[in-house]
Design brief:
This protein is mainly α. It is built from 9 helices and no strands. Helix 3 crosses helix 5, helix 4 crosses helix 9 and helix 6 packs antiparallel against helix 8. The chain is globular, with a radius of gyration of 21 Å.
């Protein structure tokens, strides 16, 4: 089904098509006359909003009179920090910044679809797959850093030597399935939520849109939390042997 072009996407395609085609050509693809997709533009917008958000926050950080934005970010950081401490252990602060960043990116990407002229980029599989691959690479790299490449790979074989070949295959398949699980969970929930909300907005004008607006808001926070939590769980599993050794 052809993708309808958002107004902001049309601006990018009318004025910045050359930039997108140059990038697509570099990776072996060609975007045509209108290479910008909605999800590409919306991702850039989310990144811009994140930079603006944290730029404003940095300029207004106060120990004596913290503002509402600072309170919100601190609550999220402390909550995810508690989760990380329970899952990972004493060295959790090393991994927290990237997980908090992932949380806010997913959250804003989910919520931006509530604005009539925009769409949630997390409704599109390429976006959720990119986030899932980031999580996958992050926890594997941290596992290798914490244990060393050899020991990290060796723990896939399990503690029983004669079951090592079977366990190794099972672990590899299990780890490779994680990006797909993260991709499908986030994409399916956001796509379904968006479609249900749009249907009821089309049928009624006041009561049901408000209800489903609240539901979309809840799902947006929940899916951002689940994505961040699963990343923490994967990191915890990747570095736990190093923590036991110490």
């Amino acid at each position: 089904m052809p993708e309808h072009e958002l107004a902001i996407t049309a601006i990018f395609n009318d004025n910045l098509a050359g930039i997108a085609n140059a990038f697509l050509t570099a990776v072996g693809r060609h975007g045509g006359d209108r290479p910008w997709s909605n999800w590409m533009v919306m991702q850039l917008l989310v990144i811009g909003l994140l930079m603006l958000l944290f730029g404003i926050l940095r300029s207004r950080i106060s120990m004596d009179k913290p503002g509402g934005l600072q309170h919100l970010v601190e609550v999220v950081y402390e909550f995810l920090g508690q989760q990380a401490h329970e899952i990972i252990g004493h060295d959790y602060k090393r991994y927290l910044p990237i997980v908090v960043t992932i949380f806010f990116f997913v959250l804003i990407a989910n919520l931006i679809g509530l604005i009539p002229a925009f769409e949630s980029p997390t409704m599109f599989p390429p976006v959720t797959l990119g986030l899932a691959l980031l999580s996958f690479l992050f926890y594997n790299i941290q596992g290798m850093r914490a244990q060393g490449v050899g020991k990290y790979i060796a723990h896939f074989a399990g503690p029983i030597w004669w079951m090592a070949p079977l366990m190794f295959v099972i672990e590899i398949v299990s780890h490779l399935a994680r990006p797909m699980s993260l991709t499908v969970r986030l994409y399916a929930n956001m796509f379904a939520g968006e479609q249900v909300t749009m249907v009821f907005i089309g049928l009624t004008k006041i009561v049901f849109p408000v209800i489903f607006f609240g539901l979309h808001l809840f799902v947006s926070f929940l899916q951002a939390y689940i994505f961040a939590l699963m990343t923490l769980v994967y990191v915890g599993g990747a570095v736990e042997h190093a923590d036991e050794h110490h």
